[in-house]
Amino acid sequence: MEMAPNKTLIYPVAAFLSSFRRRMTISSLAMLIALLCLSSSATLAQLATTPPMGWNSWNHFGAKVSDADVRAAADALVATGLRDSGYLYVNIDDGWQGKRIDSGELTPNERFPDMRALADYVHARGLKLGIYSSPGAVTCAGNEGSMGHEERDARTFATWGVDYLKYDICSYRKILDRDAHGDPEVAQRMMFAVFERMNSALRATGRPIVYSVSQHGLSRGWTWANQAGANLWRTGDDVRDNYLSVTEIGFAQGGLSKFAGPGHWNDPDMLEIGNGGLTPDEGRTQLSLWSLLAAPLLAGNDLSTMDADSLTILNNREVLSIDQDPAGRQGNRLWTEGSLEIWARDLTGGSVAVGLFNRSQGPTDIPLDLKLLGLKNATKVRDEWQHRNLAPIQGSRTFRVAPHGVVLLVIHP
Ligand code: GLA
Asked: 238 C-alpha to center of ligand 1: Å?
């Protein structure tokens, strides 16, 4: 699916063109150029206005991903209804690359016989295609990276019809170790430069390509990656398919909210729901926490074989609409005691999403005191996993929360 033209910008341009035919002056030419520049920067600024949603091949298929796996994921997004819930990006991670041929062009390996045809297949289903590379000479899985070939590779990706690039630091870390001599400021400047270089290369193609910077949280990427052109940046290490990893990463995201907003998001890494290592309660915990964090939601499982519980979790539109709230205000931790946590996120229209998390191994009562939210009463209380309205709250209420589980509410004052 291609970017929809922006009517509010096209109509003034069209009106101007008709008057332009009547009398062309230097000043009208200057105005036309200004309008065209405005139109192009507005299109780019529209990228990732809400956190990107979709699928990524890495967590399940690893470096052996194939064209057939990607097509199957695209088909499954359509068949399961996940596309219609907003999961639009079909992202090929590490493992697609073949050789860089003499002309300098990076070609896919034998598992990807025709990238342009694959992009067409994905686009024909109303989806978008993502790809992966590295500022290093080789990627984390040892494939060819983009170092020294940034402009060429960006043009190749654009020609194929790519809509999203994950650019992963990988072997560039060795160069940082070698040249930054342990100086964090130098390391940050070097990283900024390589990530910005690919950003400029992508923008020079003229194709709107979402830019995902994957520097594993190094050099506090949230403080500079947006200026380097990133629409999202990793805030930490790789997520693994178990509750400990998901929660260690997820609950470490406190304090980062001021760095996120429309067009620029903190990325705590992909979803593990449906990969077998999380119980349904643990899967609900990941989706709830990631939605409170306004995190990108990239399913990382085999969508064509997932069980019913995983699909129900991934496809909970009430929860997804918290993640996709247009104001894009990332949530924060409000309270913690032992293994219990309360996180909240302000939503458009004055309501608040609240997650009560039980990280312990037994069912536990969690008290929600509305003073935490600056409220006395809640007139409407919606349980986002039970899909039902609860009685209004006056002052406070205690909720029983399952082990490794969550109660996710949307509260209207
Ligand atoms: C790094 C990234 C992962 C994945 C692999 C691919 O570890 O953090 O998300 O892209 O590389 O090799």
From this structure: 7
Burial class of residue 75, CB neighbours in 10 A (0-12, 13-18, 19+): middle
Give CA angle at 74 (105, 54), nearest 5°: 85
Distance 140 CA to ligand 1 centre (A): 6
Supply the pTM of this predicted model.
0.90
- Name the residue with the closest Cα to ligand 1, atom 11: 140
For the cut 50, the answer to whether the pLDDT of residue 290 exceeds it is yes
How do residues 319-368 score in pLDDT, each as one tens digit? 999 999 999 999 999 999 999 999 999 999 999 999 999 999 999 999 99
Angle between the 150-160 and 184-204 helix axes, to the nearest 10 degrees?
A: 40
| Per-residue model confidence as pLDDT tens digits over 80-131 | 999 999 999 999 999 999 999 999 999 999 999 999 999 999 999 999 999 9
Q: Ligand 1 pocket test: which of 58, 138, 270 has the largest number of ligand atoms within 8 Å of its C-beta?
A: 58
Q: Which atom of ligand 1 is nearest to the CA of 216?
A: 8
Triad 110, 116, 119: Cα angle to 5°: 105
Sort 64 into a burial class: Cβ within 10 Å, 0-12 / 13-18 / 19+: exposed
Q: How far apart are CA 265 and CA 109, in angstroms?
A: 32
Ligand 1 neighbours by CB, cut-off 6 Å: 58, 93-94, 139-141, 168, 214, 216, 238
CATH, domain 53-323, list 3.30.1490.100, 3.40.50.300, 3.20.20.70, 2.80.10.50: 3.20.20.70
Transcribe 240-308 into DSSP letters.
-SSHHHHHHHHTT-TT-GGG-BTTBEEE-----TTSSSS-HHHHHHHHHHHHHTT--EEE-S-TTT--H
Strand boundaries in 156-221, DSSP class E: 164-168, 210-214
Residues forming a β-bridge with 133: 167
In 3D space, the residue among 345, 323, 349 whose CA is nearest the CA of residue 334 turns out to be: 345
Q: Residues 143-178: pLDDT tens digits? A: 999 999 999 999 999 999 999 999 999 999 999 999
Q: Per the CATH hierarchy, to which homologous superfamily does domain 333-412 belong? A: Golgi alpha-mannosidase II (2.60.40.1180)
Closest listed residue to residue 325, CA positions, set 376, 390, 260, 388:
260
First to last CA, the chain: 39
Cβ count within 10 A of residue 170: 23
Sheet with strand 352-358: strands edge to edge:
332-337, 340-346, 352-358, 406-412, 380-383, 388-390
